[in-house]
Amino acid sequence: MKQTYFARLVLVTLAYQLSWAQNLELDTTAVRIILDQNGLETTSVASVAAYKENRVDKLDLSGLGIVTLSDYIGSLDALTSLTLSNNLLDSLPAALWGLTELSLLDLSENLISELSDSCGNLTNLLFLNVSGNQITDLPGTLKNLSDLEYFGAGGNQLTQVSPDYVYMFFLKFMDLSDNQINTIPAEFSLLEELDSLDLRINELTTLYEGMTDLTGVQKAYLAANYICNFSSALWVWAQARDPEFGATNYQQCIDGKPAYASIIAQGSVGQQYALEFQRNGMQVQLSMSNLTDLPVTLFSLDGKKVPFHTVHRTQERLVISYVRRSEPTFLVIGSHENSQKYRIP
User: Fold this and answer.
1) What is the distance between the alpha carbons of residues 8 and 17, in angstroms, rounded to a whole number?
2) 34 vs 290, higher pLDDT
3) Which end of the chain has the smaller Cβ count within 10 Å, N or C?
4) What would you measure as the largest C-alpha separation in the chain, in angstroms?
């Protein structure tokens, strides 16, 4: 009887060891294939993969020039962390969305234009970063990621934000900066765990009053938008969380809408760029009696002055020329006590 028991124990142990070795070999082979498919034959698996027990637990392929991610990624079903940032990916395999053990997925700084609805399958995610891509719309299934704590989608081409994201109950950090978003859903006031909200460099013209209910938010970056109408309570809330808010948003409003610069000669970044401001007519209605002697200052988002020269200046018209920059630029006309501020598109 004892011999039979020990024989079975030996067989079970051998089977476990064989399974352990097979899993290790399969995972290592999958990573090796992914590297080789991208011309990375000299990159070792050990330099990009971390193991836990007998499986690949973490995989960091950031900055390797990855162009394609094959379905072999799906065989790494024990992965909890996958970093693919700073590569050249323009699409993602369906197998990626089957890695349901993932708690961290970093797809930032690629060429991705869309996320599959299947991304909602990754319900264990705590960290998701898709910043710096070319995404125009986010799938509604993101609301399934109810445990998410960090969500980064800055530097894309988003024009709207779904109110369904309030189902990310534990969200602490949300980055939606550098997009084309023009409104924020009122439902955002329900994100009670939110600590940091980044909405810089968008096309917001108003802020909903319910944002003052986000008392837990310590940082709310709102600079470089087109916001011109807000209550005193909202001003106090925003200014306390982003000192740049007032300096980069306050603009003259005409019929409740911000007034913008009129571009008369466009150029690429680094080329000469001309802007025209008119006090009358179809362009900006400046509420100043005389443009001849008023101080004019041009500055960048970080507050540094931008060199320019005056092309034409009369009581009714101002034309300036400067070298266009990649970041937003702001024009101030008038003295510090009585000035008009405009964001230059």
Assistant:
1) 14
2) 34
3) N
4) 109
- 293: which residues sit within 8 A by CB, 6+ positions away? none
Contact present, 274 and 218 (Cβ < 8 Å)? no
Report the side by side order of strands in the sheet with 196-198: 49-52, 55-60, 81-83, 104-106, 127-129, 150-152, 173-175, 196-198, 219-221
Q: In whole angstroms, how large is the CA radius of gyration of the chain?
A: 27
- The answer, yes or no, to whether residue 284 has pLDDT greater than 50, is no
- Of 206, 156, 152, the closest CA to residue 184 belongs to 206
Average pLDDT over residues 289-298: 69
Q: Are 323 and 271 in contact (CB under 8 A)?
A: yes
Q: Which residues is 221 bridged to in the sheet?
A: 198
Per-residue model confidence (pLDDT) at position 216 = 87
CA distances from 300 to 15, 89, 198, 256, 277 (A): 66, 32, 19, 25, 18
Q: Go through the domains of the chain in sequence order and give each one's CATH number.
A: 2-249 (3.80.10.10), 253-344 (2.60.40.10)
Select from 187, 150, 153, 199 the least CA-distant residue to 172: 150
- CB burial of 76-90 (b: ≥16 within 10 Å; e: otherwise) equals bebbbbbbbbbbebe
User: Distance (Å, rounded) from C-alpha 145 to C-alpha 23?
Assistant: 29
pLDDT digit string (tens) for 40-59? 999 999 999 999 988 999 99
74 phi and psi angles, rounded to 5 deg: -70, -20
Of the two residues 322 and 287, the one the predictor is more confident about is: 322
Distances (CA, A) of 192 to 146, 147, 154, 166, 179: 13, 13, 21, 9, 24
For residue range 297-336, list pLDDT tens digits in order. 877 766 778 787 776 677 666 777 777 666 667 777 766 5
pTM above 0.90, yes or no: no
